[in-house]
Backbone:
């Protein structure tokens, strides 16, 4: 925290005694107490993002974009447990083609880095009060959330943000309890890559997400299902338990009033390999159940998803394999797992491809990471395969794959360079693409 230190000036008084022509030494004053004044904290992140995608197959095109932006915020000093913060977000796109983005559109520019209509914009994305008393914390207002089924999904230039009230308590040993109510959402730039439809609805964005773009906050029901779907919002309860050595258990329940109830469970554990204790093993399980509630504004909802992941780490090398399965949704009109508010917890998702939530779909993924510690570089490669069921609402019967890489160079504590690539096959299902991203993040 940035503090301004002020030293109080001290006046020195001395008596001069003359004895035998000598001047008596001046007595040194004791140091004055320093007073520290806390004026709060200024913080933020600068993000410059370049993306280049080349389509092949039924679509033949190259589009690329360069933008800069990020956020800057101010947080007040604490007063009796109370703080407040306001954070300004914004994006500015560079015209790197012969016409600007709003004229050229998606034929030349990538929509996932801008506002709707390729617009630049700036807005107050966070503005909240936070109160902490002993083991309880209350946060009310515009804020960032990172929960399994409602989250920031910060994969492009600007994240999703929410209007919510969140209470967290840790009175019970090794246990975190969370209760919250979310009323509105502002959709980040990633949402603009999707057409409105089932692909968006099961990939983290709803049928009405465009109502919450360009810095606007829209009702959670409208984000999910479109204009006029005003609801009482989404109420969430959660418990996270870490009282067993090397084990974390968590349970989340999201009640989207008059739309659906979503239950999310996850268990993570780690242990030493029995053959070599220098090999650190880990395993995770996850489960989602969704069902319609109240007025069932999304129609019938009846979906189950489960996933499992097994990993190992030896020195600087780590790897994992994951598998997931989504049940047949038994005629539900939207099918699969509905994720309209940005949460994307699946172990098997690709960098871009998120077909694992489609009805009656089997997915597997393998990934490996090496930490070049002397260079401050982490390098990851992965491969995912999606076998989409015949009852899916998007591309039923589709078999698609995605491979890719992710290289992160931490140049300094605050400066990070990131180079990513993804290469889906039969995404459309009649087109593929090669995509590269270069991201520079500077945190302060």
Residues:
């Amino acid at each position: 925290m940035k503090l301004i230190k002020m030293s109080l000036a001290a006046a020195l008084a001395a008596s001069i005694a003359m004895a035998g022509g000598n001047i008596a030494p001046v007595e040194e004053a004791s140091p004055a107490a320093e007073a520290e004044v806390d004026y709060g904290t200024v913080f933020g992140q600068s993000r410059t993002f370049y993306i280049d995608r080349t389509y092949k197959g039924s679509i033949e095109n190259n589009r690329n974009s360069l933008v800069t932006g990020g956020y800057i915020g101010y947080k007040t000093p604490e007063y009796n447990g109370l703080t407040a913060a306001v954070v300004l977000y914004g994006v500015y796109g560079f015209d790197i083609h012969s016409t600007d983005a709003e004229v050229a559109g998606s034929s030349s520019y990538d929509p996932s880095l801008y506002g709707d209509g390729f617009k630049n914009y700036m807005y107050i994305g966070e503005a909240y009060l936070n109160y902490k008393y002993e083991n309880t914390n209350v946060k009310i207002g515009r804020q960032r959330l990172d929960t399994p089924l409602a989250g920031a999904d910060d994969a492009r230039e600007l994240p999703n943000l929410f209007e919510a009230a969140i209470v967290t308590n840790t009175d019970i040993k090794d246990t975190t309890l969370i209760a919250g109510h979310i009323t509105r959402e502002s959709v980040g730039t990633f949402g603009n890559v999707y057409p409105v439809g089932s692909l968006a609805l099961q990939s983290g964005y709803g049928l009405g997400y465009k109502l919450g773009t360009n810095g606007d906050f829209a009702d959670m029901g409208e984000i999910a299902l479109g204009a006029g779907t005003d609801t009482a919002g989404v109420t969430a309860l959660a418990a996270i338990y870490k009282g067993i050595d090397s084990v974390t258990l968590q349970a989340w329940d999201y009640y989207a009033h008059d739309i659906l109830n979503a239950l999310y469970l996850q268990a993570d554990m780690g242990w030493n390999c029995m053959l070599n204790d220098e090999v650190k093993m880990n395993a995770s399980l996850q489960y989602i159940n969704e069902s319609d509630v109240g007025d069932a504004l999304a129609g019938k909802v009846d979906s189950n998803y489960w996933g499992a992941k097994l990993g190992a780490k030896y020195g600087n090398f780590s790897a994992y394999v994951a598998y997931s399965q989504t049940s047949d949704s038994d005629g539900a009109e939207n099918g699969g797992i509905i994720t309209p508010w940005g949460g994307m917890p699946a172990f098997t998702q690709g960098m871009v491809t998120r077909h694992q939530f489609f009805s009656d779909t089997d997915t597997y993924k393998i990934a490996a990471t090496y930490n070049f510690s002397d260079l401050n570089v982490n390098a990851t490669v992965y491969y995912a395969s999606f076998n989409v069921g015949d009852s899916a609402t998007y591309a039923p019967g589709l078999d698609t794959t995605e491979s890719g890489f992710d290289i992160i160079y931490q140049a300094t504590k605050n400066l990070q360079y990131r180079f990513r690539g993804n290469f889906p096959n039969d995404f459309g299902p009649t087109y593929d693409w090669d995509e590269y991203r270069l991201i520079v993040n500077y945190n302060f």
About this structure: The longest helix spans residues 220-225.
